[in-house]
Structures are given as structure tokens and as C-alpha cells.
């Protein structure tokens, strides 16, 4: 009976699928991440592992994998926590859960846009602190998002959803950059394929949806932030290191840009005190995909990836063959 280890508590639906197929499933329900040693132990004892994004499966950890470890079925869309070439060298298949978070992350992007633009956090505090004494026509004024320009950097599954909501829901002008051009999207959303520089210069909202790779690490640094409009909002729900945190702190402090809505952080879960001290940010703890719907689908797909590999089929979340 193949043994599967899940490094954190995920919805039962996927675990039940695995058990029904005869897998033995164990879950780390300690509420704590596994240590490096803990991860090595799991990789050396199990036939498949379902890790969370917190689990860094680098080359050192992957060296501990036993030959029986067939697959790592990441419980995430991104897979930058796994050293793909080290996994390949060991013959381990790597999978993810693609496409499950489009709606949830896109909704979160708009939650962050509106929280930033309409000062929702500050307005809430204002009311709670008993400062709402009279209706004031000048209180918490903002420009409407309707008709503004949004720049989507990384037009994959999530970026496309964001662009469609922006265009269809708020009549925003859509600019986008991706390594691949998307002519259908241009037609549907009247979108403009632009360079990163053009987006930074013109967009009122810049939203990042690239994966973390060596090319996208620090894609947004001091120079890029300097190019943005003073009134612009930067939204990052992709991966923290895509934005250089030090440069962002500087830009927000010096009001080089207006505000930032951040769900991910360069050194998460560590966040610099300087960043948290700023009042022109809205921050959430990497929860853009945290809906019941998405989590259940992630659980189902991660489990199905495991089942497919063991039954000799190509899994829908295949990232790299072993
Ligand atoms: P995707 O693979 O569908 O899209 C990524 C897009 O980025 C692709 O179109 C690709 O061509 C493009 N790209 C890659 N390198 C690029 C570069 N250097 N410059 C410009 N474009 C580039 O992925 P997705 O499902 O849309 O997810 C995007 C990212 O969002 C994931 O990789 C993950 O890191 C992140 N994510 C975060 C959460 C969260 O909870 N915050 C949830 C899901 C996904």
C-alpha cells in the first residue's frame, strides 16, 4: 500500500479520495511546519508527499529522498519552493494545482485595490475610534477605480481573470505584459500589449501575476517604482521576492507611489518592521486563494495528481516528469 504524507492539514476531500484508492495517508496536524530534518525524514520514508508552500524542498532536502519517492504533489499553484532540477535528478515527478485559484486570487486583488483606494482600513479605524461625529463631504476622498488604467504583469490564468474583471466589471483600460502575447485577450478586453516600462509609467493600478523565477526575482525594484505614477497602487499577490521589499519601503515612505496591497512578502512570514510601520499599505497573510472552494479543489487535485501518477496516467498538474 503506497504511503502518502501531507505536511499540513488540508480539506478531507482529497485524503478520502486517496484512502478510497488504497493509499495510506498521514498528515502533519501539529500546526507547525516540518523542520528541514523532518522534511528529509518524510522524503526518505514515503512514496508520495503533498507539501505546502512553506516547505522548502531544496537540493539539500531532496538529497534525502529515497528511490521509492515517486512524486511531490505541491498543494499550491506556484512551485518555487521546490528545486525542480534536484527533483528531476532523483527521478521524482513534481505536480501543482493549476487553475484552482483564478477566481479567489482575482477577487483578492480587487479587495486589495479597493482597500487601498478607498482607505477601508483607516476608515474602519476612524469609526471604531469614535471619530465619526458628522458627515463630512471631504472625508476619505478617493478617485474612482471605474475607468482607471490597470497594468497586469504576467497574463497567465490569474492575470487573465484580473484583466477580465477589470474590463468587464469596472470598465478599466487594460494594459498587460507577458512573455507571450495574448491576442484573444486583447480583443475581448480591448487590452494593450505593453512593455513593463509603459505599464509602470501609465497604469493607476499595477498588479503582479508572474511566477517567481530567476528572471522575475526583484522585477520591481527602486527604478521600476520610480517609474510609476505618484498616485499609483501596486498590488502583489504573486510571490514576495518579485518585489524588492527594501525598495518598496523606500517608495512608500517617500510617497513615490501612493500605496501597496500585499498578500506576499519577500521574506515571509517575516515582514520588515519598516514596512509594517507604514500607513499606506494593506497587508494580508498569503490568503489570496483562501476560499473554501479553492482549498477543496486544491485538495482534490493534489490527491488526483498522486493517484494518476501511481496509476500510470499523466496528472493534470504535471510540472516536471521525474
Ligand atoms: P500561470 O502560469 O498561469 O501564469 C503566469 C504567467 O506569467 C504566464 O502567462 C507566463 O508566461 C508569465 N511569465 C512568466 N515569466 C514571466 C516574465 N519574466 N515576464 C512576464 N511574464 C512572465 O500562473 P497563475 O496560475 O496565473 O499564477 C501566477 C502566480 O500567482 C503563481 O506562480 C503563484 O506564484 C501566484 N499565486 C499566488 C497565490 C496566493 O495565494 N497569493 C495563489 C495562487 C497563485
Question: Can you walk me through this structure?
Answer:
This protein has helices spanning 12-20, 36-45, 59-63, 84-89, 102-117, 120-128, 157-170, 183-189, 196-202, 222-227, 245-253, 273-276, 292-310, and strands at residues 3-6, 24-27, 48-50, 71-73, 93-95, 149-153, 173-177, 192-193, 205-208, 233-236, 259-262, 281-283, 318-320. With 322 residues, it is an alpha/beta fold. The chain folds into 2 domains: 3-99 and 292-319, 3-Layer(aba) Sandwich (Rossmann fold), CATH 3.40.50; 102-283, Rossmann fold, CATH 3.40.50. The strands form 2 sheets. It has a 7-stranded parallel sheet with strand order 8-7-6-9-10-11-12, with helices on both faces. A 6-stranded mixed sheet has the order 2-1-3-4-5-13, with helices on both faces. The protein is globular and about 70 Å long. It starts with a strand and ends with a strand. Nicotinamide-adenine-dinucleotide is lined by residues 77-78, 98, 101, 105, 154-159, 177-180, 209-213, 215-216, 237-239, 263-264, 286, 288-289.
In whole angstroms, the N-to-C terminal distance is 21 Å
- CATH architecture annotation of the largest domain: 3-Layer(aba) Sandwich
State the helicity in percent bands: 25-40%
The CATH fourth-level homologous superfamily of the largest domain: NAD(P)-binding Rossmann-like Domain
Count of folded domains: 2
How are the strands ordered across the major sheet?
8-7-6-9-10-11-12
What is the gyration radius calculated from CA atoms? 21 Å
